[in-house]
Amino acid sequence: QGITPCEITDIKHYPNGIRGEAQGQTIALGSGDFVRYSDSVHLRKSHCSDNVQLISEVFLTINDQLEATFQLGDSIRDNINKFIRTLKELGYDIYLISGDSNEATVSVGQRIGIDSHSCQGNLLPHQKASFITKLKNQGNKVIMIGDGVNDGPAMVESDLAVAVRSGLDPGEGASTITFLQENPKQLLAFLSLAQKVNTVVKQNLAAAIIYNLLAIPIAACGLLNPIVAVTAMSLSSLSVILNTLFMLKSESNRIHLKKYQLG
Questions:
Q1: Nearby residues of 30 by Cβ (< 8 Å), 6 or more positions away
Q2: Count helices and strands in the chain by DSSP H and E runs
Q3: Does this model's pTM top 0.70?
């Protein structure tokens, strides 16, 4: 209150900070690595209170002199530990990559059940993408979950990109699917349904192959009446449709998905 903002000129944006000129002075705002570009900047060690579960630090410098440190905290969702545990039980390897400090990233990872060696911080957007590429080169299928702000390049590199919509999401265009609610159970329900769809597709393909292997030789030998052949083809298509509908109507499938219902 009582502060008059001054005009900032010559504004330049960087992956981990912003720099500009105001009243003849150079002002920089960004991560520790960004403001360390000037050797004269000395960063003070800050301490987090016990009730802060995620901490990011933003530094303000004027003419390469540290003037302020901003600590941005965020709480961990109550059900995230169960979410991570369920993914592990399903056979997924979980990694946490972040632009926040490595110390903060590891701390959060340990609190939600991710091993420290699977956590990596201080990553710029292109470094996140390289991390995803490395996992894929090792023969893995990668699912990337991001908020879309700095995760766009990594989401493009992944096999399945999941954007969690929170207001306007710049990374939405890079995502394969977008969840409108910030609820991790949505992903579990999606993976469960996707697995069942994959099973049904394989069943339908197998049925089609068996049908053609049996029917084509019989038809080629002239042993199949044309009317019977047309009827059999229609029944083949109908069986595929019915098998797919059975998946949607299956009581066991509804019970399984109810396990991951939203709320």
A1: 14, 16, 17, 18, 19, 58, 59
A2: 8, 10
A3: no
